[in-house]
Hints:
By secondary structure, the chain is an alpha+beta fold.
Amino acid sequence: MGCDRNCGLIAGAVIGAVLAVLGGILMPVGDMLIEKTIKKEVVLEEGTTAYKNWIKTGTDIYRQFWIFDVQNPEEVTLNSSNIKVKEMGPYTYRVRYLAKENVTHDSQKNTVSFVQPNGAIFEPSLSIGSENDTYTVLNLAIAAVPHLYPNAFVQTILNSLIKRSKSTLFQRRSVKEILWGYTDPFLSLVPNPISTTVGVFYPYNNTVDGVYTVFNGKDNVNKVAVIDTYKGKKTLDYWTDYCDMVNGTDAASFPPFVEKTRVLQFFSSDICRSIYAVFTAEHDLKGISVYRFGLPPKAFASPVQNPDNHCFCLNAEITNNCTYSGLLDISKCKQGKPVIISLPHFLHGSPEILETVVGLHPNEEEHSTYLDVEPITGFTLQFAKRLQVNLLVKPAKKLEPLKRLTRNYIVPILWLNETGTIGDEKAAMFRDKVTGKIKLLSKVEIALLSVGMVMFVAFMISYCACRSKRTK
């Protein structure tokens, strides 16, 4: 009887030990299997999970626009007063709904090339009004004249055309015209202009972004989706030194197994440069654990605060000898037009920039850019890209609308918020196929290890107690 009991206790201890060992073995083996599966599925080739989402995103992506309506145009033009603006919006469009085109694979270089078609569809239900709502905004063509034609004699000739067209520094335009273009009366009188159509995003519909060539990750998963060339080149020809390089991915995804210490680099054609994001928080997105990465203030800091940005400061006139933060002059990328990019409401900008504009209220929550990345796959499951488009306006004695100005202005035109969040159906599929299986495996590993250890300890204590009792 005693032998049976002791044998049973020893058998229980052995079973517990075996379960614990199985749990311990399953941990590295399971991790290895997960890593192997992920490495296979994130490669950009036909048949993989990543490729299906890469060709055409299953997530609805929207661009919201807020227009800065100028409240005192005559005071600015006549007295060089501070500009008073009122933010109007959002006006929302669905974008990036078209699949990538001209997709070609290069198996020797392990790359894939494509272009991304541009398209925007107005969404009235997500907007405060119609595309035909009109606001007072800067006259884009007039503001650009001193930058494109600095010669005083040429300006004198152009001034006669400005008078004939009755163009002023500020004008009433519809949302649709401001965004997508209108025929400008002044440019229509200019002999052989580059274009008579002006708009902040003109041309956009029926155009493409690219050609992009990215690594497919087949030979090295750490390079998956990383851009090799943009428009056939590794550099942009807009900046100097390393600022001119095309770095990282397009931010839709990153190489897998993302750690919190990683700096995520990505290229944005909207701002004509590569930029980066750093870890800020971890949170739950529809049952999926994601890492939030945000643009740090130093990304748009002045070279005085961040020496790495020295090669982004090409126009000392705009940034007070490169001492102002928060401004990016992309005029070289925009055929000489005086376009300045910033974060909305000049978030993280130098206080001096806000001195000439009344009505702006920067805040981190509404105006910062972030990416929510699922760390195992590297897929971006939610994002908000927020940018402001401004124009540099400077005095010009030969031009009627600009001759009474006594200082430079950085005039905000609009800001945008481009957002996308994984849909409920896609999130459920992602949980089922990726995070759910990983969590289940992890639970099995812990359960086996825990149960095994408890059984082993419990049966061994019982066995020792029985032996001690018999000895007595």
